[in-house]
Amino acid sequence: MDLMHALRTRRSIRKFEDRPVAEAMIRQVLEAAMAAPSAGNAQPWQFVVLTDPAKLADAAAIHPYAKMAAQAPVGILVCGDLSLEKYAGYWVQDCSAAMQNLLLAAHGLGLGAVWTGIYPIEERVRDFTKLANLPQGVIPLGFAPMGWPAQPSGEVNRFREDRIHYNTY
């Protein structure tokens, strides 16, 4: 898939077909996530892949905007590992870049996914930490339910000339 086409056609997918995602595809998505840039090349991320239907149902129950996880064959939890940071606080940006790569890779493979935010909502951080048994210092940033799309999506142009400023606002 052409990169610019992929960027313009990637959409948040919240409905999934009832079929599994191959482990090789999950690995490709994770490889893309780990190719993201990070401050000082620290790569302060950890990923928890949920494939257990009970765990996915639990994720849907604890996150008000992740109800679709109960029907997804896969969910990937993107986490920041504070012990891997070179520059304090940049894990959020680093893991956000990893999440974006993950979403684009899924789209490029014909999968659909949606980024559901966790951090900085304390209740969500606490509940996903418990769900995934995260160790201290590993903070969940976001959760991406993923699978084969069961909804249409198309290209959207969101370009806004009025949001561009050169040299000064």
How are the secondary structure elements laid out?
Blueprint lengths: L2 H7 L13 H11 L11 E6 L2 H10 L11 E8 L9 H18 L3 E2 L2 E2 L4 H11 L5 E10 L22
Antiparallel strand pairs: 1-2, 2-5, 3-5, 4-5
Question: Tags for this entry?
Answer:
5-stranded antiparallel beta sheet; 169 residues; 5 helices; alpha+beta
Structure in a nutshell:
The protein is built from 5 helices and 5 strands; from the N terminus they run ααβαβαββαβ.
Question: Mind explaining what this structure looks like?
Answer:
The mean pLDDT is 97. By secondary structure, this protein is an alpha+beta fold. The chain is globular, with a radius of gyration of 16 Å. Helix content is 34%, strand content 17%. The termini are far apart. It has 5 helices and 5 strands; from the N terminus they run ααβαβαββαβ. α2 packs across α4 and α3 (53-62) runs antiparallel to α5 (122-132).
